[in-house]
């Protein structure tokens, strides 16, 4: 029976996921596969490279660096999160990613991106985390309105959360029968239609099917979340989520706030560690 990890996105809400993952690593919990959406991929990849504390460390260190995330970056580069800084300079020079451990770890790692031409999700295994894989990871986290469309392998891609925010069912279809699902919204959260649909329609004018998916994104999200909790009741997944809304901006640059949300993730996992280990037996 293959055991997996499913990680929702949410930009800086992903610090919650980072805290959960670090507690898993500290307690030697091994899984067979992991799949991340957006921040779930960009922060969750540190689970495969076994780099405890890396996600919170570099986010705090570069929180005020305009090259990392800023409207200045958006104006100068077209990406709110600077592509070259985040996916080249940061992992290769400033806070080195452990490529060797990532590649030797048998855990399979997947990212979810959205195909702008079809309005459907794409699930991509990232075995190497080389520049090609990092570009797929960037695509998974490229939020609409504030990011370039990422073109790679014949695809035109944007944020995976636009088409599959919580890919539990997709992972089950890949053969992962027991899954830990990390959500970055509380249980009672219900997503509403985006208030930016007019801007989205203009921004995605070349991709009508992607805009159509965005019209129904809130419905998709709420259906996926309901499915997660049905699977939890059936004993097929284990859910970790914040006890209440995290109250953090998607572009938060206050290191104390980043630490607070990270610590909430750690606490949530620590409180459920015994139950999770029983579930995974």
Protein model, in words:
By secondary structure, this protein is an alpha/beta fold. The chain has helices spanning 14-26, 39-42, 45-48, 54-61, 71-77, 83-94, 99-104, 131-140, 168-173, 197-203, 208-215, 217-233, 255-280, and strands spanning 2-7, 33-37, 108-115, 120-125, 150-152, 155-159, 176-182, 237-240. Strands 1, 2, 3, 4, 5, 6, 7 and 8 form an eight-stranded mixed β-sheet that branches. Strand 3 and strand 4 form a beta hairpin. Helix 1 packs across helix 13 and helix 4 runs antiparallel to helix 13 (255-280). The longest helix is centred in the last third of the chain and has 26 residues, at 255-280. The chain is globular, with a radius of gyration of 17 Å. The termini are close together. The model has no long low-confidence stretch (mean pLDDT 97).
